Amino acid sequence: MNVEDLASFALRRVTAYEGLAIDSATWTDAHTYHQTAQRLHTRGLHGWGIVSGLDVTPVEPPSRAVILQPGMAIDREGNVIRVAQPVRLVIEESVTGTAHVVLRFVETPVDSGTVPPSRVDELYQLIVGEPAVGANDIEVARIAIDNATSAITRARDPLAPIAHEIDGRFRRHLRWPSADTLVVGQLVLADGSNAGVHRQGLVNMLNGLRASAPYVVQFLGDVRAEDIAASCNLLYLCAAGPVRLTAREGTQLLAFLRGGGILFAEPCVEMESSQKENGRFVASFQRLMADLKQELEPIGPGHPVFVARHVFGLPPAGTGGQAAILGKGNVILNPNDYGCCWQGGPTGKPLAREVIRGAVEFAENVGWHAANVASGT
């Protein structure tokens, strides 16, 4: 929890004395203190996000409606949002672009026969629209809408949903108190030739990071260069053969790096060998970085990726060998292909546990380093 957030949790307690008149103002102050203290406890000790449930699913048969399943969340103000029953939501035909489906905590006066009402229900609103999510809203799904008639369905690939598919990548799941979220994307080149390379290995590694890191780890799946500047903190690029970027892609990548984003790049050695292009990814990536004024050079134990969580004296071995790690600023180039290790080794050539562990732990260091850079620590 950020120190700046404490300003919204002012605590003033009623002090009783003999003869104190218990009027409505005193009664309200007494209850407000307990409410605020409870919200501060919830937010400060438990964090904010989706606690459980709140999945968004299509109706059957698919139409322009979705169902919010029961569940619970905590918003940034420490308010508990409870959805006890499934809720049907219709995406109106007038909605276009990216529809954000969010939950918002609301207090609703109850008609108790008094003026003003003497009771308030703590409820929620389920809202859909194009504006950005509010500071206290809990996003449960996004849906890209490009026409007024297509039905909304489950995403065939949850990491790369298309128009009219339910996108759950931006759901924030509550872990433990943390002001940080590490948002990871897998950079896809313009020709799409590297889409999904080492995807399972990357997912395996991120699952391990989620289990040990004191921050939320969010994976966006495939991202294009033109979309990265405002979307993530850590980019993973894995490909085979020469790396080529358009002028616009190069500009966007440079903006991402200047904005504090970390780029971790490596070749897929197995693909390069099958294509007889051994070493071409590393050489072309170095030239590309030189064109962007990022002259890569060997880095070692003095660099955060060697010590951020696990201590390394030398780069761990990968399927590409044990060459020096290269870096400059926020760019890290690994010639050793750890992504293949994250998924157990090349096809038909399983790796020893020690090799896999070294590759995973080094990648966790990269994640911790990216999270530290993003949080300014």
Q: Outline of this structure?
A:
The protein is an alpha+beta fold.
Report what the structure shows:
The protein has helices spanning 24-46, 199-212, 247-258, 269-274, 280-291, 339-342, 353-375; strands spanning 49-53, 56-58, 65-68, 71-74, 80-83, 87-90, 97-110, 119-129, 138-145, 166-167, 181-188, 216-224, 234-239, 262-267, 297-299, 325-328, 331-333. A seven-stranded mixed beta sheet has the order 12-11-13-14-17-16-15, sandwiched between helices. It has 377 residues and is of the alpha+beta class. It has two domains: 49-167, no CATH class; 181-375, 3-Layer(aba) Sandwich (Rossmann fold), CATH 3.40.50.
Can you tag this structure with a few keywords?
seven-stranded mixed beta sheet, 377 residues, Rossmann fold, globular, four-stranded antiparallel beta sheet, 17 strands
